[in-house]
Amino acid sequence: MEINEKVLELKVREAELKEQLAYYEAYPPVNNMGKWSRQTAIDRISERLAKVQEKINFHDSIYLSNEIYKEWKKSVE
Predict the structure, then answer these.
(1) pTM of the prediction?
(2) Number of folded domains in the chain?
(3) HSE-up of residue 43 (Cα within 13 Å, Cβ side)
(4) CA dist 66 to 33, 71, 76, Å?
(5) Closest by alpha carbon to 7, among 53, 65, 69?
(6) Residues 45, 18: contact at Cβ < 8 Å?
(7) Could you tell me the residue range of the domain that residue 10 belongs to?
(8) Other C-beta atoms lying within 10 Å of the C-beta of residue 17
(9) Tens-digit pLDDT profile for the chain (77 aa)?
(10) Cβ(20)–Cβ(52) below 8 Å
């Protein structure tokens, strides 16, 4: 699996998590248990979203460094 395929899969997962987060942020709690459940879901989804975005940034930085290396190698040759 190439880096680009991994990034695409991560971006799809990121979009899904953002959609879930938007749903729970708009979800009106009814009572204290609902407030707790909503906040727990928001926290859990936010953590997952942060991890996915971190992985996307990591793969993007690897891709960028590979491109810079390729350009440098061409200029040296």
Answers:
(1) 0.77
(2) 1
(3) 6
(4) 50, 9, 15
(5) 53
(6) no
(7) 3-76
(8) 19
(9) 466 788 889 999 999 999 999 999 998 888 999 999 999 999 999 999 999 999 988 887 877 777 777 787 778 77
(10) no
